[in-house]
Amino acid sequence: MLENLSIVLFDTKFPENVGSAARAMTNMDCQKLELVHPRSWNMEKAYPLATAKGRTIIETAGMHDDLESALAGNARIYGTTARTGGWRKGMMTPHKAAPMIVEQLRAGEKVALVFGPEDRGLTNDETQLCSRLITIPTSRENSSLNLSQAVLIILYECFKSALEKPFTPAGPPPERATTFEEQEVLAGNLQETLLAIDFLKKDNPDYWMLPVRRFLSRIDLKRNEFNLLMGICRQVKWIASVARKK
């Protein structure tokens, strides 16, 4: 889905953050990772945070000495920044940028998302290499995001925009409706229970049970609800039997 989209991590400080970013990439079906002179690079430290799914992304990641070589071959470059002052005008949110990115990917263009180092982000010189800039709206009191969080947020918007139809969470499997036989068993059990607590009159209980049966007939009773009511009946009858012995 996002096979022509590259995540470029520039000058990262911690290999663990690279691992977490790789895991986020697998969540959003993005596989191409480019690393530009990561500081203190240690693949073994990145693996645990990447988990098994992200391990391949780390092992196949491109390694580059400079940002220009990491961006080579891409038609569109999107830089990310938390700083919005100065000349950094016309920045987009991930929600606005994602449809543009997906449209370019569908046109066969290669697109790169560039993330700067954790301690300072991309400099002005580095952002000049980017076609557009993306900023993630945050609280004014704390605008700093973990690297993998930023990767996940932007990739989520791209993944959502790339879906052919809106995503709907898979609900629980449909519950089986009760059969006629089960409905009769429940009605009989309810009648015994209501007799045990003197709710039904003992003379002609079938007649007095008719309103309860009519009520049950209007309910689309499922098997799990059948089990629930049968359990309640058992407990009520047990309490009634204990009360009679006292």
For this entry, give a set of tags.
single chain; 246 residues; Alpha/beta knot; Helicase, Ruva Protein, domain 3; 2 domains; 6 strands
- Quote the beta fraction: 5-15%
List the uncertain runs: none
| Computed structural class | alpha/beta
Distance between the termini: 71 Å
* Helix percentage: 40-55%
Number of domains: 2
What is the highest CATH level, the class of the largest domain? Alpha Beta
Annotated CATH architecture of the largest domain: 3-Layer(aba) Sandwich
Total strand count, please? Answer: 6
What would the CATH topology of the largest domain be?
Answer: Alpha/beta knot
Mean pLDDT: 90
Number of helices: 10
Outline, from the CA principal axes?
A: elongated
The spatial strand order of the largest sheet comes to: 3-2-1-5-4-6
Task: Describe the fold and architecture.
It is a single chain. With about 250 residues, the chain is an alpha/beta fold. The chain folds into two domains: about 5-160, Alpha/beta knot (3-Layer(aba) Sandwich), CATH 3.40.1280; about 180-245, Helicase, Ruva Protein, domain 3, CATH 1.10.8. The protein has helices at about 15-25, 45-60, 65-70, 95-105, 125, 145-160, 180-195, 205-210, 210-215, 225-245, and strands spanning about 5-10, 30-35, 60-65, 75-80, 110-115, 130-135. It has a six-stranded parallel sheet. α4 links the parallel β4 (about 75-80) and β5 (about 110-115). α1 packs parallel to α2. The longest helix has 23 residues, at about 225-245. The chain is elongated and about 95 Å long. The N and C termini lie far apart (about 70 Å).
